[in-house]
Write a structure and sequence with these properties.
- The protein is an alpha+beta fold.
- The protein has helices at residues 2-23, 108-119, 160-166, 193-198, and strands spanning 70-75, 83-86, 92-95, 99-102, 128-134, 139-144, 150-153, 179-182, 188-191, 215-218.
- The longest helix has 22 residues, at 2-23.
- The termini are far apart.
- The relative contact order is 0.12.
Length: 220
């Protein structure tokens, strides 16, 4: 009889303990789920690319600004007057307070001096710097059997020999003996790269100076 009573008490205690355990609130899982794997072949977000900081080989005292060039104007301590400007087809840009200003036909240094004179009425001793961000007014194009065809800025004097090398050289089956230079007015000039490379001084085989608007054709 005593044994049965003890067994009944034990069963009751176990039942009470189990009920207390299941009655406790469940804590939320605070561990973040693992990131889902991208399905095979799905595009991944590329990392941010560093800006291209390669500077153009421009001399601010000799390069002449042209229409559609992109210039950077820095007026020290005056953010309102600073920033990138596109030169319009009429050769002008627009500045706060002074309005339209002629930029085409001037070197960056000369243009900075003119801006300084114009802004001196509104600013005390303005310090101004003008840089070229992108050359659009002076370009040539190379097509055909070269490794990097396309348009190129013409910021310094360049020959057809240099232009071909800048374009990564020839394809395997490119015709190196008759390079054609087509001027903007339609004039056609010819250049034999192989003969020039050998050092043959043929007066008819001139290493042509590239001009804005030229198209260099390398036949294949």
């Amino acid at each position: 009889m005593v044994a049965r009573r003890s067994l009944a008490v034990l069963v009751a205690q176990l039942t009470f303990a189990s009920a207390a355990i299941f009655a406790q609130p469940t804590r939320p899982n605070t561990t973040p789920p693992p990131p889902a794997e991208s399905p095979e072949g799905a595009p991944r977000t590329p990392p941010s690319l560093a800006p291209d900081t390669t500077g153009l080989p421009l001399d601010p005292k000799t390069y002449v600004i042209g229409p559609e060039d992109i210039i950077a104007i820095k007026v020290w301590r005056e953010a309102e007057f600073s920033g990138a400007k596109g030169v319009r087809p009429d050769g002008k840009i627009t500045m706060p307070l002074i309005g339209d200003v002629q930029a085409a036909g001037l070197t960056p240094s000369r243009f900075a001096d003119q801006l300084k004179q114009a802004l001196a009425t509104y600013l005390k001793d303005p310090e101004i710097e003008v840089d070229i961000l992108q050359v659009n007014s002076k370009r040539y194009t190379i097509t055909g059997g070269v490794n990097r065809p396309g348009p190129y800025p013409l910021v310094t004097a360049k020959t057809v020999f240099q232009a071909i090398n800048d374009a990564g050289g020839f394809h395997e089956f490119a015709k190196q003996t008759d390079i054609i230079i087509i001027r903007a007015d339609g004039t056609r000039l010819h250049f034999n790269y192989k003969e020039f490379l050998k050092g043959n001084k043929n007066p008819k085989n001139k290493n042509v100076q590239i001009e804005p608007g030229d198209t260099i054709v390398v036949k294949e």
